[in-house]
Structures are given as C-alpha cells and as structure tokens.
Design goal:
- The complex is a heterodimer.
- Chain A has 4 helices and 5 strands; from the N terminus they run H-E-H-H-H-E-E-E-E.
- By secondary structure, chain A is α+β, with helices and mostly antiparallel strands.
- In chain A, a hairpin with a 4-residue loop joins strand 4 and strand 5.
- Chain A is elongated.
- Chain B is 14% helix and 38% strand.
- Chain B is mostly beta strands.
- Chain B is globular and about 45 Å long.
- In chain B, strands 1-3-4-5-2 form a 5-stranded antiparallel β-sheet, with helices on one face.
- The chains are: A alpha+beta, B mainly beta.
- The interface between A and B is large, with 41 and 40 residues.
- Strand 2 of chain A pairs antiparallel with strand 2 of chain B.
C-alpha cells in the first residue's frame, strides 16, 4: 500500500472499534421460500422441508437453512457499511430459526487494523449476530472485512 | 474472541474399527454457471449483478462424491445432518463461468457425532478455503445423506 492509498483509507472513514450497527429485521421465510432455496443451493436436507421429520428430530417446525441466514448477513452488511467487503465469514448456528419466524440482525466493530506501507489493507473485524423472534441468539458470526476499492 | 469461529474443531478424532475416520476427495472440477448464480442470488438475497455470491460455493458441497463419502463415514446409522458451523475464507473472489479445482477432506468425529468438511478451491493458487461442520443426529426416519 502506498502512502497515498493509506491516506485515502483514513479519508474514507474507517469504522471505530465498538461502533454498533442498527438492528435490521430478518423477514420470515415461508415453506415455499425454503423449497426454492433448497433447489438453488443444493441443500436438500429434508429437515428443512418436512415438518414430520423435524418433529422426530425434536423440533416443533422445520428450521430455516443456516446457510440462508448466513447468506442474508452479506446484504445486511451492505446496508450498514456499503464501503466494506467481506473476505472471511465464520458462523456458528446456535439456535434454530423456524419457518415463518422472523428475527433481527445486529453487530458491532470488534477490531480495526490499519493498513501499512507494504501493501496490507486496513482490516475491520465485525461481530455479527442474529436473534430469532424468541430473542434467542440463533447465529453468531465474525466477518473480516476490507474497504472496497475507491471508485 | 478474535480467532475464527470455525477454529473449534480440533478435538481428538475417535475411530471405529468398521469405518474410516476421514476421506479425501478430489480434486473435483467445480464451476459457477451464470444461470445457477442468478437462481442462487434470487433466493439468498445476494446482488443480482452476475458476481459469484459469497456463500455460493455451498452448492459444491452437495456434489455426489461428497455425499457418498459422508454416507460411508457415518456407516449404517439413520441420521440427518444439522449445520453447526460454517466458514468461508477468500484470498480472492471467484469468477463466473470459470472452472476451479476443489479438494475436500471429510473427517468423522464420534464424540460428539460430527462430520467436518474442509475444502480448498482454486486454480493454480487457492481462492477460497471453506469449512463446514455438521452435527449428526440419529433419527429413525431420516434418509442417510450428507
């Protein structure tokens, strides 16, 4: 990274550690949406589509695919910080979000590492969460991000 | 918590006499076709700009060879997989309509009962490393699939 590029990053307002993102709603997914996601993603695990199988696995209803929740984190970040792009995303799926159940995404800036003169860009580590309607922590994620190239 | 969340899968691997504890698959040739990208992006709320969505490589874990390996490792039980954790770590974005090579290691753990899939995807150099951890739940009605 050149000195000019480093100055440019500062000028583009790196997030501050501790900065919180406004909670964003996660719209409920109905069974038809889960079927379509199964087809598009190749994840045809029947537990997401078969209420009886979900019941036998101890769940009151089919759960939304964890990967569908994870996928929707990416546009949530684009709402919060459209100038950031994710390079690493790690998720733990802690509690289910059931079909027809909504939720809420939230997050905060955990760490900011400045870019340097040897070409390493500034890196911003975010901690992201999703709570289901029952206020349980359904998804816990860490996203390592960098600034998108200046237009 | 500054370590990747996917870093918690380093427990000792327990083995059984009747089943292997890990399998290597690939390299497989994988490709993000434009039509698949569009269908995936619509359902995953990803941008419809032709770029490969961040979580699109999920599709490649459904490859028949990978599913067959999962069945082999979870020998003989009636089970379903529950997604426990997932990570994607990109060195650079993937391009649409380009062939990539994907190599996968699938590890069977017994306590708790899990499959851990670690994939590396790239061409001459890696573009992406991904890890999927599946908890194995026994069920009397489940189809045996990965």
């Amino acid at each position: 990274m050149t000195i000019a590029a480093a100055r440019s990053e500062v000028a583009r307002d790196l997030p501050k550690v501790g900065e919180k993102f406004t909670a964003l709603p996660f719209s409920p997914c109905n069974m038809d949406e889960l079927r379509r996601y199964s087809l598009a993603s190749g994840d045809d695990n029947p537990i997401h589509l078969d209420p009886e199988l979900a019941r036998r696995a101890g769940l009151p209803a089919p759960p939304v695919h964890g990967m569908l929740l994870m996928s929707r984190l990416v546009p949530a970040l684009a709402v919060w910080r459209p100038d950031l792009t994710i390079i690493r995303l790690s998720n733990k799926f802690l509690r289910p979000v059931f079909v027809n159940e909504g939720g809420e995404f939230s997050g905060r800036v955990a760490q900011v590492t400045q870019g340097d003169a040897s070409g390493n860009p500034a890196k911003i580590l975010l901690r992201l969460m999703m709570h289901n309607e029952r206020r349980e922590l359904a998804l816990l994620a860490e996203a390592l991000t960098i600034l998108k190239p200046a237009a | 918590m500054t370590e990747p969340l996917s870093g918690g899968s380093r427990e000792p691997i327990q083995t059984r006499d009747s089943a292997p504890s890990s399998l290597h698959i690939g390299p497989l040739t994988v490709r993000a076709e434009a039509a698949e990208i569009a269908a995936f992006a619509r359902e995953a709320a990803a941008p419809l700009d032709g770029s490969v969505p961040f979580t699109f490589p999920m599709r490649w874990f459904a490859h028949p060879e990978i599913q067959a390996a999962g069945k082999k490792l979870v020998d003989g039980e009636a089970w379903i997989p529950i997604h426990e954790s997932q990570s994607f770590d990109y060195d650079r974005p993937l391009d649409a309509d380009v062939d990539y090579r994907m190599s996968i290691e699938i590890i069977r753990e017994l306590e708790p009962s899990r499959l851990i899939l670690r994939a590396e995807i790239g061409d001459a150099d890696p573009c992406l490393r991904a890890e999927m951890v599946l908890r194995i739940i026994a069920t009397d009605v489940a189809e045996t699939r990965a």
